[in-house]
Design goal:
Blueprint: H1 3-15, H2 18-25, H3 29-43, E1 48-50, E2 55-57, H4 59-83, E3 88-94, H5 100-112, E4 116-122, H6 128-133, E5 140-142, E6 151-159, E7 161-166, E8 183-186, H7 193-205, E9 211-215, H8 218-226, E10 232-235, E11 244-247, E12 255-262, H9 268-283
Parallel strand pairs: 3-4, 8-9
Antiparallel strand pairs: 1-2, 5-12, 6-12, 7-10, 7-11
Length: 289
């Protein structure tokens, strides 16, 4: 049985949507559909019920998905263990936006568990869920909601959010103080938690029509504020010069970052990593209101 076809099938089975599965796999829909048909022919059974409106697993599809997930995970573990020369190997995906927390926590985990190999892989936020579900990594980090089949999650970080303005300009204390101000948006093509947060905040507060420019990231946004382009939403962790003021407002909730892992994951090493991450976050007072 072709491993590639199994990967394709599991992605469709989890999403129940061919277009979304193809996008997640980085392939066009035509070869994905062909692989599923070939798998059904090989097994001589229907795996999916397809209509123009929905995709559903048949009973045979449910059985295959359960076994395929285990097979793919075991293949991934075998490859990683072989590359690690027999040492237990764990892989953790982390987003670039908040890389300080997972990298520091991983360093402490490696010190406490020298018998394990922990690889930290910088992965875009938009690809974290697929990386965990496919078995490419053991744990990842996402911003809620986490409505994904087969995944469990736990809260790690709540990052307070701030309004960045010129220090010489009038301070903003409420929503009325934002009216008429020009905003700096973030490049939505980067698809990170900060981009999604600012986009949703603009929509919720009715500020979409007052954009002054687009920033690549927080550092770029702070620079634009410093040069008088407009005001921006940044995290409390953003570095700002003395000429830029940041302050929190009640209608700017914190961004929550959660750790995710597969529900069927039974490795004690993965459980130890998850326990370490949650304990480290609590000890470091990362969970803030």
């Amino acid at each position: 049985m072709d491993v590639r076809k199994l990967r394709y099938f599991v992605e469709v089975a989890d999403r129940l949507h061919f277009t979304e599965a193809a996008r997640a796999l980085g392939v066009s829909q035509q070869p994905l559909s062909r692989a599923i048909r070939e798998l059904e022919t090989e097994l001589d059974t229907r795996l999916l019920e397809r209509t123009t409106r929905r995709v559903a697993l048949t009973q045979s599809g449910e059985v295959l998905r359960e076994h395929a997930v285990r097979i793919l995970r075991d293949i991934t573990l075998a490859e990683r263990a072989t590359r690690a020369n027999g040492r237990a190997a764990l892989r953790m995906a982390y987003p670039g936006t908040y890389e300080g927390f997972p990298i520091n926590a991983a360093a402490q985990f490696s010190e406490a568990h020298p018998q394990l190999t922990l690889d930290c892989i910088r992965t875009p936020s938009s690809k974290q869920v697929h990386a965990v579900r496919s078995g490419d990594v053991d744990v990842g980090f996402v911003v809620p909601p986490v409505a994904q089949p087969g995944l469990s999650s736990a809260p790690l970080i709540r990052v307070p959010m701030r309004i960045a303005t010129l220090a010489a300009s009038p301070a903003i204390h409420d929503l009325e103080g934002l009216r008429g101000r020009r905003w700096i948006a973030y490049d939505q093509r980067r698809k990170g938690p900060l981009q999604a947060y600012v986009r949703d905040t603009f929509s919720r507060l009715g500020l979409e029509g007052a954009r002054a420019g687009t920033a690549r990231d927080e550092a770029d946004a702070v620079s634009m504020v410093e040069h008088g382009v407009g005001i921006a939403i940044v995290s409390a962790a953003a570095a700002t010069p003395p000429t830029v003021r940041t302050n929190g407002l009640p209608f700017l909730p914190p961004i929550e970052l959660r750790v995710i892992w597969r529900c069927d994951e039974r490795q004690s090493d993965v459980a130890a990593l998850i326990d370490h991450l949650t304990a480290w976050a609590e000890d470091a007072a990362y969970l803030q209101a």
